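#dry-run=false #mode=assembly
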Amino acid sequence: MLQRIQPETLDVIRTRTSVRDYATTPIDDTLFEQMITSLLAAPTASNAQAWQFVAVRNPGRVEIVRAFSPGIIGIPPLIMVACIDHRRTKRAPGEASEKLADTAKLCVAMAVENLLLAAHALGLGGCPVGSFRGPVVQKLLNLPAEIEPVLVVPIGHPAQTPVPSKRRESSEVINFEDWRPDTATA
Amino acid sequence: MLQRIQPETLDVIRTRTSVRDYATTPIDDTLFEQMITSLLAAPTASNAQAWQFVAVRNPGRVEIVRAFSPGIIGIPPLIMVACIDHRRTKRAPGEASEKLADTAKLCVAMAVENLLLAAHALGLGGCPVGSFRGPVVQKLLNLPAEIEPVLVVPIGHPAQTPVPSKRRESSEVINFEDWRPDTATA
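#status=ok
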């Protein structure tokens, strides 16, 4: 439990935005470790923790992963590759469960959001990238077949002040009690 | 951008845990609106915002949704039903894109994590629930076929102090540069 209500966290959540250009400054280990702690505190269905992460920081390797990830724009000092661990999404030996794998994917996404929020809270920035060549990245990182990369996440010090993207009005996406009763036919 | 680094946000992220039992106290509107702002600030691929949310607060309706959601334990004052909006995951009229729908699902999960973190920051709690009868919930809420519920999220004031679940050592899930080089065969 928190010692006290922390409304300032809402500012962190509200002002996070995608950062796609990075300064060349590396990420120091203290910041890195704080991001890892946040990453691993995400919800995980049945506490299965059916996830694996690869932190790519070696500049040569960053460049190679980036080459196969069109969604990564600038050159980041860190790419976190977020994966489902399918070894932990099976009900019984040999029996794969589509539903459990699907749930694991949601947990990986929530972990990535924790990572991005922690980065932002620490003055860093990044964005979740789904546009990458999965099989190539898998091979480049020597990932076994059961470790499936879902998102690659470039993170670094922002090269310039990022501008939050405009969102639709909340009335367009938040419904009360059921589907848009104002427009529903009786 | 943030005015200053906010390391206390890391405490919010680190101490969030699933809350499954709720006090009967309702959630006041100020807290509710702050949670909505956080929810909608999540990353969204290509800013598609291919999501819709239904806030269920009417006690009778909460009870009905809960009846078809075995993953919801206590009776919460709010259930947020988080959905993919498939009308926004098509490349061209009539042409569905599996990849875009898959990406939208990740965005919905990240939005739900924002919601849960905001709840925790405000002294509330909840948990993401994948165990619910999708087609029934869809019908109960009058959701059109293109609005697919992904997670139902009960939220309320915690009935007791929640205990964070134990996680594996970070060395078991964080790899450096590539797959577990310490155990890889040369």
